[in-house]
Amino acid sequence: MNNLTNRKIIGFDMDGVIIDHSERKVILAKELGFIIKKTETTPEVMKKLLPEPKYRKLQYFLYDDPQKEFLPLLMFGVKPVLSRLKRDKVPFFVISRRQKHDIAIKLLRKHGLWPRFFNKKNSFFVDKIEDKEIVAKKLGITHYIDDDQRVLTALVSVKNKFLFDSLGVFKNSGYTRVGSWREISKLL
């Protein structure tokens, strides 16, 4: 890509795009007294199914519990796409709302992503959805992949936004949907 106007700068959400929590969410919901299907594990759906206190408790066990930090799986196909982006010198970043940065980094390390693909220079951990827009704008992100439509709506500076819908839940989304990292690879 010689023309800078055609240069891609990619942004990824971490949880639900790089890291797969769907199986853990089903298990944790059951432990909290709720039976949910894997297709009901997206943040937008779960918030409707679980009362706020239970949802927050589930989130703690999912993202902040140091005893369970190594349980989540890696989405299938992540490493080949990141390898290609790195080889082709396409800049990419992770922008996550993970509150416990150290746990997030340990999880990325466990899956062989830190520091091979992500490190302190291309990883940003923010507090709120709106903060993702601030970071994305500062970095000049041109393409962003997230599993939460609210985030994509907030990213007003990003031209190309993709909803990662690996469970096929959001068929009527106004965003371009991708269901796998293979599809992401074709887009990028």
Write up this protein:
There is one protein chain. The protein is of the alpha/beta class and 188 residues long. It folds into 2 domains: 128 residues, Rossmann fold, CATH 3.40.50.1000; 47 residues, no CATH class. It is 39% helix and 14% strand. The protein has a 6-stranded parallel β-sheet, with helices on both faces. Helix 5 links the parallel strand 4 and strand 5.
What is the gist of this entry?
The chain is α/β, with parallel strands linked by helices and 188 residues long. The chain has helices at 22-31, 43-49, 52-64, 78-87, 101-110, 129-139, 149-154, 181-187; strands at 10-12, 19-20, 73-74, 92-96, 123-125, 143-146, 160-164, 176-178.
Comma- or semicolon-separated keywords:
single chain, alpha/beta, Rossmann fold, six-stranded parallel sheet, two-stranded antiparallel ribbon, 8 helices
Give me the count of strands.
8
| Secondary-structure element string | EEHHHEHEHEHEHEEH
Strand order of the biggest β-sheet = 5-4-1-6-7-8
Report the biggest beta sheet as strand number plus sense, adding barrel if it closes.
6 strands, parallel
Strand content: 5-15%
Indicate how many domains the architecture comprises: 2
Count, helices: 8
- Kindly report the oligomeric state of this protein: single chain
Helix content: 25-40%
Distance between the termini: 12 Å
Global structural class:
alpha/beta
Radius of gyration: 16 Å
By CATH, the topology of the largest domain is: Rossmann fold
CATH superfamily descriptor of the largest domain: HAD superfamily/HAD-like
Low-confidence stretches: 1-5
Looking at the structure, what is the overall shape? globular
The overall pLDDT, averaged over residues, is 90
